[in-house]
């Protein structure tokens, strides 16, 4: 496993060691001890989530203002452009974003620590997206920053308008959203 830093402190790209031959492949997708040793992150995951979405579906930018979740995310079918936005007011990278392709082919994972908004857009015909979270889903604490906030300036790889949920269409501008200290 390789752990690579990203442009935003705390967000980590994880490349697993994949063993393959003519029969297929094998890799260890998560090992708590190795994750802690390699990342320096002591995370206890309490919930696993799995979604399937069609091409052009954009989910996000979601976060929980209380019971903030760290997320370890990956794609098991298809491909997405995955985004993390720093919402920590005290951070030197507050309001900045980073994005990366996660796919079944590249088998990469992204660690998104608490204090970040997270979202993705499906770039393949469909994608299955899995994520482990460090706290439980709490809808009363969930918030959404609008996906196309010009103050953030995410460069989404879109052909036309994305497909959004009602909740995601109602997202707030960063300037109006609840933030972390």
Automatic annotation (TrEMBL):
InterPro entries: RmlC-like (IPR000888), RmlC-like_jellyroll (IPR014710), RmlC_Cupin_sf (IPR011051). Gene3D superfamilies: Jelly Rolls. One of its GO terms (molecular function) is dTDP-4-dehydrorhamnose 3,5-epimerase activity. The active site is at 62 (proton acceptor), 131 (proton donor). GO terms for cellular component: cytosol. It catalyses: dTDP-4-dehydro-6-deoxy-alpha-D-glucose = dTDP-4-dehydro-beta-L-rhamnose. It is an enzyme of class 5 (isomerase). It comes from the Bacteria. The keyword Isomerase applies. Pfam families: dTDP_sugar_isom. Its EC number is 5.1.3.13. Keywords: Isomerase. Pathway: Carbohydrate biosynthesis; dTDP-L-rhamnose biosynthesis. The record marks 137 as: Participates in a stacking interaction with the thymidine ring of dTDP-4-oxo-6-deoxyglucose. One of its GO terms (biological process) is dTDP-rhamnose biosynthetic process. Homodimer. Catalyzes the epimerization of the C3' and C5'positions of dTDP-6-deoxy-D-xylo-4-hexulose, forming dTDP-6-deoxy-L-lyxo-4-hexulose. NCBIfam families: rmlC (TIGR01221). Belongs to the dTDP-4-dehydrorhamnose 3,5-epimerase family. This is dTDP-4-dehydrorhamnose 3,5-epimerase.
